[in-house]
Amino acid sequence: MSDTIRYDLTVDDQRCHLDDITPEMDLWENHGLLVRGPAADGTDVTLWTSPYIVKSGPNSYYASEQDILQTILIATNYSADEKQQMHDNDFVAVGWCVADYLERGAVTADQNEERVLWKVRGREYEDSPPHWAVRGEHAGVDLDLGFDGYVPSFTVFPPSGFMDEGMAWYEAYLRTTGTIEHGGRTLDVTGAYACHERVIVYRDHEPQKMLGHGLNWHHLFSDRVQAWMMTSPSAGEGLAYVVVDGETFTAKSAETVRIDDLDHWVDPRSWFRVPYRWRSKNTRLECGMYGAASNAIFSPLAFVNVPVASADIQ
Questions:
Q1: Per-residue pLDDT at 126 exceeds 70
Q2: How many CB atoms lie under 10 A from the CB of residue 172?
Q3: What is the mean pLDDT of the chain?
Q4: CA gap 75, 265 in Å, rounded
Q5: Residue 243: its pLDDT value, please?
Q6: Which pLDDT score, from 0 to 100, does residue 286 have?
Q7: Do residues 91 and 298 touch, judged by C-beta distance below 8 A?
Q8: Which of 76, 113, 277, 296 is the most exposed, fewest CB within 10 Å of its CB?
Q9: Distance CA 267, CA 218 (A)
Q10: The CATH number of 1-203 is which of 3.40.50, 2.40.380, 2.40.370, 2.102.20?
């Protein structure tokens, strides 16, 4: 990580928050890591893995409480021409179905001054910002990955204000070293981009605000320019962070931050009709992104590889 970049995430920000709340309170807490980029052999890789803790109080929005471990892996190798259209490829998606839920206490977190170590089943996540690591097997996917922060994190709700705001949320952009093993293959993803996401919520939910277009966000990874844009038209929310040469620019309004669906694809397995081309625009910061996906996986969370993308930053 560059010595010129101030990094504001701490070891304490990585802790489990169960001890911070009372029995009457809900809690939804994740600890996600996204890897995006080509492996050494040219395979196009998207990996998402995260433990979750869902706790419900007596008047909870949640139907049940449980621990969760999620692994999603998309690994494809399409030509440039093939990437111009969607493909019905295989993928790994384990964790969010009810049958995959784990008992409370399956996710543990041990904290000392130097690191927080999360463990669940055969996988562990080690946090010592600006460095992270994930190791172990789940859903047939064996990980041995390290991550290093290389730009300032995007803080939506500061971790220090969790008890006052009812929420903490940040996205930390990272670079990856290490390997992913699955199906007899070893994918070396050293140099791929990554994101560590933490969303921790105890405040009341308003699910009606997710009707319509729901909640959408896009990542842009590169060496010099990074961007994260989030919109929810039904909730009247728009938020964008753009980092250029280590300097962060922010825009916050539904009027200035937009993600427009340009085309749709019908998944032949689920018959879901999903967007696969978008234009993301931030009029306040005078920047935009265009992306098209070539393959997809659909679950309660939707992830798509976007190998065709362009950005205009002014």
A1: yes
A2: 25
A3: 86
A4: 20
A5: 87
A6: 62
A7: no
A8: 113
A9: 21
A10: 2.40.370
Q: 297 has which bridge partners?
A: 303
pLDDT above 90 (res 16): yes
Residue at 282: amino acid letter: N
Tell me whether residue 5 is exposed, middle or buried, using C-beta atoms within 10 angstroms of its C-beta: 0 to 12, 13 to 18, 19 or more. middle
C-alpha–C-alpha distance, residues 274 and 18, integer Å? 36
Q: What is the pTM of this model?
A: 0.90
**Which tokens hold the place of 282?**
């931030």
* Residue 254, amino acid: A
Which of 36, 18, 31 is CA-nearest to residue 69?
Answer: 31
For 184-201, what is the mean pLDDT? 96
Q: Answer yes or no: are the C-beta atoms of 182 and 46 closer than 8 Å.
A: no
Question: Two tokens at 93?
Answer: 């998606």
Alpha helices by DSSP H, listed for the chain, are 162-165
Q: Which amino acid is at 137?
A: E
Mean pLDDT within 120-141: 97
